[in-house]
Amino acid sequence: MTSKTSPLANAARQRLLQRVEAMQDAASIGMSDRVTAELKSIDFSTLSGYDELRFYRSLGQKFGVESPYFRMHEGLAGSHTQIAGKALLNFSSYDYLGLNGHPEIVAAAKAAIDRYGVSASASRHVAGERPVHRALEQALADHYGVADSLIFVSGYATNLGVIGHILGPKDLVIYDSLAHNSVVMGGVLSGAARRSFPHNDLDSLDRMLASIRGHFERTLIVVEGLYSMDGDYPDLPRLIEIKSRHSAWLMVDEAHALGVLGKRGYGSAEYFGIDPQQVDIWMGTLSKTLAGCGGYIAGCHELVEYLRLTVGVFVYSVAMPPVIAASALKALEIMHREPQRVTKLQQNGATFRSLALNRGLDIGNGAGTAICPIIIADSAPAVVLSQRLLERGINVQPVTHPAVPAKASRLRFFLTAMHADAEMAAAIEATAEELGQVRDRMRALGPLL
Ligand SMILES: Cc1ncc(COP(=O)(O)O)c(C=O)c1O
Questions:
Q1: Phi, psi at residue 378, to the nearest 5°?
Q2: Which CATH number fits domain 103-337: 3.30.30.10, 3.40.640.10, 3.40.50.360, 3.40.50.300?
Q3: Which of 176, 285, 313 should be mutated for ligand 1, with most atoms under 8 A from CB?
């Protein structure tokens, strides 16, 4: 095999050599503060948090604990999966209703590929749309009983781009302290004033609004329909009352509520029996229950029209691949057609919760939904416990500080409609057994951990 080096690679290599030489020279002659500062400013390893990453990696190596992240699944990861050739029970899938890989969805995806290929190649503004884009938007609007909806290529980018776009420096965004990072970063992007209220503490939200709402033009309250860290939900009727009294918009992120809450899995509005039109902005993702990828906004005509024509994350970004739109559309159809999946998922949530409580495990705020935290407190034991469970054939992810408050690290169990009672019982039993042993071992290792 011949190896050819492009002019670009040569130039990059030249720059690298010069940089190394500069570093060597500076080191040999004793660097001035200015040179040191300059070298630091181009050294990626000085970026915020990099030292901490290195520290945790070396700690893991010292104690023989593998990183629990980026585990490689070798096939479809639902209630079961396969990692490194080993069949495992899986509690780390958001495929709540077990729709990923459903034959009808696979067939819809294949038909869309045959017709449109795999990419839409550019923004819908400039390169046009496909019928499946509008069909999915119509289906989502009908699902929420609102005028219209708009789909985006990423759930994260939906929050980031939409919140960042509809608010400005004269406005206020106020969100639950457990709101997803995409909500927080959307607030940052907007330039609006940002406040958070303690998790699900609506008295506190009400008080904050009473004292500061008057200083701002527009106010957006953002909550999640179902919180992905704690598996609990906010009091939506009360939020509607509060937002109306303070003349604010209410945005509900249904990423984890769709397919999970409400008798038929329609989400928070169905769960609380409210008129969905009372919520100003419904946001959701296609990546979880709908076994796809992307986000959506559903609401009144003016909101959706404004976003369709102006929001950068839609206007200047590629359209959703038609294959994804077609499969999410089919998944929504199956969810509506087969409410028994939702019933089973809800039974599983209740069963898992009582199994955990009976075994003396701390489930934090877990409300018996499809997400159940098992609170471990410190980060290191949570990571070690996840590894021990992996060795026993159970895949469950730890969530550690700073993703959750210090002393609130946990294992996070995601249940699906496909988990059997015996599988959940086995997982709880193994968790309780291993947790006792891990805690004993950690105590013996001392305060470093
Ligand atoms: C509440 C919430 N909102 C938004 C997102 C982002 O969605 P996606 O992963 O589909 O981009 C997530 C992802 O986990 C989430 O949990």
A1: -80, 155
A2: 3.40.640.10
A3: 285
